Amino acid sequence: MKLSDFNYNLPQNFIAQKPTKPRDHCRLLILDRETGDIKHKKFFEISQFIKNGDVLVFNDSKVIPARLHGNKITGLPSVALAKEGGKVEILLIKKISSDTWEALLKNFKEKEFGKKIIIAKNFIASPEKNIDGGLWQIKFNQPAGGKDKNLDKLIYKYGQTPLPPYIKKMAKLSDYQTIYAKREGSVAAPTAGLHFTKKLLNSLKKQGAKLETITLHIGLGTFAPIKDNNIEKHKIHSEYAEISAKTAKAINKARSEGRRIIAVGTTSARTLEAFAMSTDNQQQTSNNKNKQKFRQSDDRQTGGILPFGKMWVDIFIKPGYKFKIVDGMITNFHLPETTLMILVSAFAGRPAGRHGRKNILKAYQEAINKKYKFFSFGDAMLII
Fold first, then answer.
1. Distance from CA of residue 93 to its chain's centroid?
2. Quick one: which of 249, 192, 172, 199 has its CA closest to 61?
3. Per DSSP, which regions of 18-122 are E strands?
4. pTM of the model as a whole
């Protein structure tokens, strides 16, 4: 398929610049993936579409203040040299070790290799290797004491919220954080989760829904642009993910009972599907040798138990993919011609993704007609 198949026109004023408050008062478009029918609600009314025994799977990764600003220097750092050097923006992408990261550097060229970037006194980054274009491996000097937590403190002290470029006004990190975020490591928010409040989560639990978490630290795999019109040529950058034994057990039990698994966000969906596809995880659930047969559906492969453990996820879900785990998805409205737009198009039709792209483009056009807000701080969809 062509990248242009996943394009649509969006007026700039439809891009949300700030979150809805209260969070769960944003608008919700419900898309029936079998019929293509559409309904409109408020997000806090989502419980009307959640059944007793449904398992909602949330990504509990926490956004870090991953955007840093510094100046290029040569030799020993000093105030004078810092002032002379050009400005550099650092976007931390993936933690490699205690003091080493992959990062996108803006205004730093490969011919400048050897220069350092001073962010603050005793907080210096050294670009060590150019990986691809603006993506570099950088190493930070160890601050006094040489402890990881001290470097983390500096990142939190000098870093800024890594908002997408289409959001023009700086927001508080708390606005770009889900209320259940626990595990630090993402450089972008799992935005489908931004709409949940404690009250809504408690309401869902009271009506019998099961709430489980996975972790996927969001990086380039989620938001890197596709550069070729032939989407088959695009390779997803790997992102670190974990599924606990508790979560795997709950999902496997629900599947064996014919209950639905609803992914909160594309990152949760990709994690579940990547683990289900995996055949070489070091850890497996205790049910792995169990021969019980799971229910069949038009768009899910039979058999296969969700394992727990840790892995690097680089799955690129495209139309034609048969989902093994996910029955429903809560998601935002995505940028055109992105891996996320392609993923929801793969999911939005039954059987086996049939008419998914058509259903998504129809839903997006209706959302535009109804003046929904789009992207990270925008309104939400439930595809079910």
1. 13
2. 192
3. 27-31, 38-42, 55-59, 61-63, 67-73, 87-95, 100-106, 116-120
4. 0.90
Task: For each of the domains in the chain, give its residue range(s) and CATH number, in order of start.
Answer: 3-63+170-383 (3.40.1780.10), 67-158 (2.40.10.240)
How confident is the model over 225-258, as pLDDT tens digits? 999 999 999 999 999 999 999 999 999 999 999 9
Residue listed under structure tokens 């889900």: 178
Q: Where does the pLDDT of residue 79 fall: very low under 50, low under 70, confident under 90, or very high at 90 and above? A: low
Helix, strand and coil percent figures for the chain, each rounded to 5: 30, 25, 45
Q: SS3 for 196?
A: coil
Cis peptide preceding 319, ω within 30 of 0: no
Please check the confidence at residue 144 and state whether its pLDDT lies above 80: no
**CB burial of residue 292 (10 Å; 0-12, 13-18, 19+):** exposed
Report which secondary-structure segment, H or E, holds 128. Answer: strand 123-132
* Cβ-contact 307, 275 below 8 angstroms: yes
Task: Give the whole-angstrom CA distance, residue 55 versus residue 109.
Answer: 47
Q: Give the model confidence (pLDDT) of 189-206 as tens digits.
A: 999 999 999 999 999 999
Q: Where are the beta strands (DSSP E) in 324-379?
A: 328-332
* Residue scoring higher pLDDT (317 or 78): 317
Dist. CA 295–CA 81, nearest whole Å: 66
pLDDT of residue 85: 73
Alpha helices of 42-169 — where are they, by DSSP H? Answer: 79-84, 148-158
With contact defined as beta carbons under 8 Å apart, do 144 and 153 qualify? Answer: no
